[in-house]
Amino acid sequence: MIEPKRVLRALAEHWALLEPLCEHFDQGTLSLSELRQQLAAQQLDSTPQDITSLLDVWIRLDILVPVAKSPNRFELNAQIHDFLAYLRREHRLGLCLEIEAYLRHLERLAEHIQEAFDIRDGNDLARQLRLLDMRVRDVLKKLGNDEQALVAVADRAKTSDRQIPLRQRYAEVLATWDEYVEPMIQLVNADGAFEQGVRKVENVLLRLLGEQQRLGHLVDDDMLLRTHARILEMQTSAQLTLRHARELLLPLREEARRHNAVTRGAALALSAIRRKGLDAVPQAAMPLFTRPQSTFLGSASQVEAYVYALARFEAKPAQFPTAHKVIKGDGQRAPRTVKEMLERCEDALPMPDLMVWLLEQEPNGATDELLYWFSRLSRDKRFARQRLERRQYNTREHQVSLRSFALLSSADAAAAASPEPSASTAHAS
Questions:
Q1: In the 3-class helix/strand/coil scheme, how is the chain assigned residue by residue?
Q2: For the segment 307-338, what is each residue's pLDDT rounded down to a tens digit?
Q3: Res 28 pLDDT > 70
Q4: pTM
Q5: What Cα–Cα distance (Å) separates residue 151 from each residue in 181, 245, 246, 249, 270?
Q6: How far from the centroid of its chain's Cα atoms is residue 241's Cα?
Q7: Fewer CB within 10 Å, N- or C-terminus of the chain?
Q8: What is the C-alpha separation between 20 and 104, in angstroms, rounded?
Q9: 8 Å CB contact between 117 and 208
Q10: CA–CA separation, 198 vs 132, rounded Å?
Q11: Are 374 and 383 in contact (CB under 8 A)?
């Protein structure tokens, strides 16, 4: 075991030398000669023997460790590197799968807690509760680190060199969205693994609180309440981290996507013009470029006709409808009630695709209204739902990408799920 005081004393004493080396170690390993050059550049009055003794101290304290199969190259100890990154306020974005793995561990700990309570083992119950509280704190620490790392990603994209193409400047933003934010949205969704895992652990803790009042105390109620409050804090922190990530990265992602669409369209138009001339591009897609009228020099007859048109100009009178006139047509119908939509949905069961049915019922409906009815009908308890694959749906105003549901009545779903009575049982009855 290495004495912690010596390691901390060495870090404090040589901080001015170690901090610049962190940036080099972030990019990779360093050879022994490169380390000597870096230290010689920082300590101009040091001798080669001083640099050698300093490197010996760092290697002996495991601050520097040799790379596997490359004994002449060194890197910072992983724990020392993380500690220095924390001191330098650096945050590295982790994986969304780490949070999912933590959630699986929390669920297993909840099962162990329930088993320890069932056999009335107070020591094991307290130990499992401490482990659960430590894992929840690990998740909170990771969420805080990820949020700061997302802020750094957005700042780097905004402050990078403007001469670099937008696709390259926002490459890290696009990769972060695809690899972290999008899986995080699926994880923290209402039906996602995060909410389900939190609900399972919360139910176990609340059940223990009630059972302890009835059967007797094995652990202090304050420990259960404190762990339960920390779990709710973890749930809120995950939602806030996801919201902050969307607020930071979604505008940058949409800007990159718009820029890519405009660039792609311009490139296609220019290639068509080069191959087939100006007539190859549809006229509706081409702006009409004309010289401003103030700089136009025309003939005398043209100027005379223009002035004459200005003198004889008469605006067209605006036609307003009379108050008693009734406009023919459908007009604005009253919005459908929840009762009416539920009855129509029940009559249409079984329904292979809820969104397709809504588009057939409301072909001219607004997108937000259709999405409201989709959410309202899919969550109703009288229907049994089955999630479908993601696809595109075209409303009157937008194109929506979502995973729809196939609906059945709850009674039909229960009847289909219950096993049919065997022939022998029916004969015996």
A1: CCCHHHHHHHHHHCHHHHHHHHHHHHHCCEEHHHHHHHHHHHCCCCCHHHHHHHHHHHHHCCCEEEECCEEEEEEECHHHHHHHHHHCCCCCCCCHHHHHHHHHHHHHHHHHHHHHHHCCCHHHHHHHHHHHHHHHHHHHHHHHHHHHHHHHHHHHHHHCCCCCCHHHHCHHHHHHHHHHHHHHHHHHCCCCHHHHHHHHHHHHHHHHHHHHHHHCCCCCHHHHHHHHHHHHHHHHHHHHHHHHHHHHHHHHHHHHHHHHHHHHHHHHHHHHHHHHCHHHCCHHHCCCCCCCHHHCCCCHHHHHHHHHHHHCCCCCCCCCCCCCCCCCCCCCCCCCCHHHHHHHHHHCCCECCHHHHHHHHCCCCCHHHHHHHHHHHHCCCCEEEEEEEEEEEECCCCEEEEEEEEEEEHHHHHHHHCCCCCHHHHHHC
A2: 666 666 666 676 766 665 554 444 455 567 88
A3: yes
A4: 0.47
A5: 13, 8, 11, 9, 38
A6: 9
A7: N
A8: 39
A9: yes
A10: 12
A11: no
Q: What is the pLDDT of residues 390-420, one digit of tens each?
A: 889 888 888 888 888 888 887 776 776 665 5
Give the whole-angstrom CA distance, residue 208 versus residue 217: 10
Distance CA 111, CA 177 (A): 34
- Distances, alpha carbon 247 to alpha carbons 99, 241, 244, 401, in Å: 21, 10, 5, 20
* 229-280 pLDDT per residue, tens: 888 888 888 888 888 888 888 888 877 776 665 556 666 666 667 777 666 5
The tokens of 77 are what? 């100890």
Overall average pLDDT of the 8-33 stretch: 79
Instruction: Identify the residue whose tokens are 């995080």.
Output: 184
Q: What is the C-alpha separation between 95 and 104, in angstroms, rounded? A: 15
Q: Extract the tokens encoding 262.
A: 């405009």
